[in-house]
Amino acid sequence: MTIALITGTSSGIGLHAAIGLARSGLDVVATVRDASRASALRAAASEAGVTLDIRSLEVTDATAARALIEALGPVDILVNNAGRGAVGTLEQLTDADLQDQLETNYLSVARLTRLVLPGMRERGRGRIVTVTSVGGAVGQPFADAYCAAKFAVEGLMQSLAPVVAPFGVDVSIVEPAAVASSFTDSVHRAAPGPYADLQQAYLDRTSTAFASAQSAEDAARTVVEAATTSAPRFRWQTSEAAVRFASLSLADLDGSRVLGVTQTWVRSDA
């Protein structure tokens, strides 16, 4: 039995990735923040003819995360998918806004990953996949807090990857660009104030991008591939649009060049 735990599955990429992982023959534990909002997930599982173990989890609740991992036992694949956006430039953002983004998009991922790592390391196998964003590679106007948290989680995972690789644990990140989902419904929007015109221009541009966005089902296929492939790599983009966008900052699109260097830093024979 291979257990895959995926967070943030009530809709969007997480919902379709949970279904895809189950279709791959994995025993999928799919978490949602609010169990009363899992009807779409249950309906999708029924339509696909797969079984999911649906659990409630507020990812920012460290005690609940620990209790879940202790209840589940060994987790073979962890997919950190839960996330939340925010619109606002730094002067508009409170400390609470910044902390909220760090808690949801960075610290919760770090905590959950830390909880599953001992078991993976001891068993000599495991895979950790974190859904980040092209906003983890390219800073964007009025996405200050969101991009900062996504940059942070990408840095965490890229730093972790060469250290756990010798123990048979593969670490990957998946970078979607605009995806048609309900993700934008939960985006926190700061009051525009003196930035009203600039912020509106950004929102207009974003609306255009989401009008032609990749489907969540299509993006989820990359997440499933990253979690199940026999040839894992560190960095994945979910579409050609994501490749083009990430390449504004990255020349090392699949992550092999950076890891090729940093892996030598932890080899005793280097």
Number of strands: 11
**What distance lies between the first and last C-alpha atoms, to the nearest angstrom?**
37 Å
CATH 2nd-level architecture: 3-Layer(aba) Sandwich
CATH topology: Rossmann fold
The H-and-E topology, N to C, reads as: EHEHEHEEHEHEEEHEHEHH
CATH homologous superfamily name?
Answer: NAD(P)-binding Rossmann-like Domain
| Secondary structure category | alpha/beta
Can you walk me through this structure?
The chain is an alpha/beta fold and 270 residues long. The chain is 47% helix and 16% strand. It is built from 9 helices and 11 strands. β1, α1 and β2 (27-32) form a beta-alpha-beta unit. α1 (12-23) crosses α7, α3 (62-72) packs parallel to α4 (95-123) and α4 (95-123) runs parallel beside α5. The protein starts with a strand and ends in an 8-residue tail after the last helix.
Give descriptors for this structure.
globular; Rossmann fold
In short:
The chain is of the alpha/beta class and 270 residues long. The chain contains nine helices and eleven strands.
